[in-house]
Amino acid sequence: MGKLYIQKRALTPLDELRRTLDQAERAASDLQGDTAEPIPLLRLCDAIDEDLSDLEKRDVDLRVERLRFERLQHQLRHLDRRIVSEAVGAISEERATSNPPRSRWWWYMDETVARERRRTWIRRLAGIAALALVLAGGWFGYARFLAPAPEVQQAYRHMESGMLAVQEGSIHAALTHFERASELTPDRPEPWLWTGALRAGLGETDKAERLFQQAEALYSARFDFVLNRGLVFLEAGQTERAQVDVESVIELAPDSGWGYYLRAGIAVRNGDYEAAVDDLQLAVDLAAENGNARLQQMAAAQRAGIAHMRTAARPK
Q1: Is the dihedral of CA 288, 290, 296, 300 positive or negative?
Q2: What percent of the chain has pLDDT over 90?
Q3: What are the CA-CA distances from residue 194 to residues 112, 152, 188, 250 (Å)?
Q4: Mind listing the pLDDT tens digit for each residue in 217-268?
């Protein structure tokens, strides 16, 4: 008996889309190990995006295919940063050639990774700025370790909640927490500083000035007040105001490393890593001369981290 010949059916545009999705899903699964190469996958995403757009114009039901593409994009968004970092050169070259629209975000993953790294280091600087507040004012160490009165513990919780609200961009919620902390502990300058900084950011200059006067009265030296206000401005993202204070700090104590440490934080927020590294090195040197071991260690650690970030951000 002869073999029955069945003519192959030509693939429809929808079949082609599904086949491309199959290829892309396999390629995403294969992005492992030291030889991972994302460029073919990114090209497949382009093809899927084009096919989806064409078929939608024909009123084709693409709910399943859209869901598959969304899952694929989710995988891409959570791609190992190492893979993206190692492919920066190839991605940049391909992008320069094809000039893809921003809607095809996968061709701009390297920029996203760079921004995330910058935000990470900014948060780390902000954390060290908070540590500087501990060293200069003693608030958090006192509140956490010395079993203070209940109202002080409550104020401490409000301070923590306020800082978290600032990070989340909830300024009015943060104000509520800081104002409550200042009511509970009117003898501590930090709540007044934070309330003043946020009021200044809202354009309420007169209120902010009165709050700053209240805070300054609680410091033994103007240097401590200006330094801590500058650190709060930096954490609050108000770099221009922080810059004014850093100039005052350096003028008040040019041989102290704190002013240059604060200026390095501003430089990082502005993306000027070279200036940040230089200022942190100066802070290290001055701290060593003054016997300030804690500042020396902090500035040295930050300098090494930012130098690494600067190197990683350079195109390969």
Answers
A1: negative
A2: 39
A3: 31, 17, 11, 22
A4: 999 999 999 999 998 998 888 999 999 999 999 999 999 999 999 899 888 8
Q: How many degrees, rounded to 5, is the angle at CA 60 between CA 59 and CA 61?
A: 115
Q: Name the CA radius of gyration of the chain, rounded.
A: 27
Tokens of 196: 């003043």
Nearest to 309 by CA among 113, 52, 46, 117: 117
CA-based max dimension of the chain: 105
Question: Rounded to whole angstroms, how far apart are CA atoms 140 and 135?
Answer: 9
Q: How confident is the model at residue 133 (pLDDT cuts 50, 70, 90)?
A: very low
Write down the architecture of domain 115-313 according to CATH.
Alpha Horseshoe (1.25)
Q: 206 vs 197, 201, 271, CA distance in Å?
A: 12, 12, 32
Spatial distance between the Cα atoms of 171 and 203, rounded to a whole number of angstroms: 13
Q: Would you list the domain boundaries of the chain?
A: 13-113, 115-313
The 10s digit of each residue's pLDDT in 285-299 is 999 999 988 888 888
Listing DSSP states for 218-263 in one string gives TSSSHHHHHHHHHHHHHHTT-HHHHHHHHHHHHHH-TT-SHHHHHH
H/E stretch holding 65? helix 63-77
- Give the SS3 label for residue 184: helix
